């Protein structure tokens, strides 16, 4: 490559803009309470992650630890005390950002038992429940479970649908869920190719359909935020800022 070729190559390279998430205002999916799931491992790490999220322009965080019967047996009894400790540490460090906690519930028998037994469910806002499933196989009676949740006063929000292989492959199910107005939340990281190119492509397809209600960082650690900082390179970054989403209402 000659000098002129190098110059032309450099000239064509677009500089990466600083990541600005102020348009989203509220991140409603993250794992920032230390030591209770696969997210932040220490209070120090949590404070560092939250500082970075604040610097991206977010005004509020709703952190959502995993609740999963086989792996993360969290409950309000583990999540809410962790939230209070985190709030105290943020105050001591003069990190001024609003933070609340809900949960990311894995759809399994334990969740349905909680709902049927009228146990306390940690919701976002009044009745939104962030839920997830396994990535490969569709849960049995998925649509029936969503219906059951709604009959009990909850509005399910399906976390990162772009990552579910069964949704990528089953367009009929996908559009059935959309037609039932199941709220979808896309991970911003999916648009960077962080998970895979097929997931990135599917996330873009869902955005093109104009049916996404929420975006989230799904922040677990610094590696997530390092990659998130490349989001301005995505051809969809400007597009998602113009979408009508519900984050700012939380």
UniProtKB/TrEMBL annotation:
Keyword Isomerase: no
GO molecular function: manganese ion binding; protein tyrosine phosphatase activity
Main EC class the enzyme belongs to: hydrolase
Keywords: Hydrolase
Keyword Hydrolase: yes
EC number(s) stated in the UniProt entry for this protein: 3.1.3.48
Catalysed reaction equations from the record: O-phospho-L-tyrosyl-[protein] + H2O = L-tyrosyl-[protein] + phosphate
Top-rank lineage group of the source organism: Bacteria
InterPro entries registered for this protein in UniProt: Caps_polysacc_synth_CpsB/CapC (IPR016667), Pol/histidinol_Pase-like (IPR016195)
Family: Belongs to the metallo-dependent hydrolases superfamily. CpsB/CapC family.
Name the record gives this protein: protein-tyrosine-phosphatase
């Amino acid at each position: 490559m000659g000098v002129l070729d190098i110059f032309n190559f450099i000239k064509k390279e677009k500089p990466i803009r600083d990541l600005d998430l102020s348009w989203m205002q509220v991140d409603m999916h993250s794992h920032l309470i230390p030591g209770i799931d696969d997210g932040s491992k220490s209070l120090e790490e949590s404070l560092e992650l939250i500082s970075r999220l604040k610097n991206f322009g977010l005004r509020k965080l709703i952190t959502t630890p995993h609740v999963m019967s086989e792996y993360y047996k969290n409950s309000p009894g583990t999540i809410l005390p962790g939230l209070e400790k985190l709030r105290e540490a943020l105050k001591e460090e003069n990190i001024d950002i609003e933070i609340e906690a809900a949960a990311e519930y894995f759809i399994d028998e334990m969740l349905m038992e909680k709902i049927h037994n009228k146990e306390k469910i940690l919701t976002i806002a009044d009745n939104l429940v962030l839920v997830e499933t396994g990535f490969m196989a569709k849960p049995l009676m998925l649509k029936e479970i969503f219906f059951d949740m709604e009959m009990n006063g909850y509005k399910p929000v399906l976390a990162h649908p772009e990552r579910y292989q069964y949704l990528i492959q089953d367009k009929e199910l996908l559009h059935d869920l959309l037609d039932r107005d199941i709220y979808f939340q896309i991970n911003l990281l999916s648009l960077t190719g962080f998970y895979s190119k097929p997931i990135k492509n599917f996330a873009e397809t869902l955005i093109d359909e104009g049916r996404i209600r929420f975006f989230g960082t799904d922040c677990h650690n610094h590696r997530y935020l390092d990659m998130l900082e490349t989001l301005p390179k995505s051809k969809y970054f400007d597009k998602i800022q113009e979408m009508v989403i519900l984050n700012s209402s939380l």
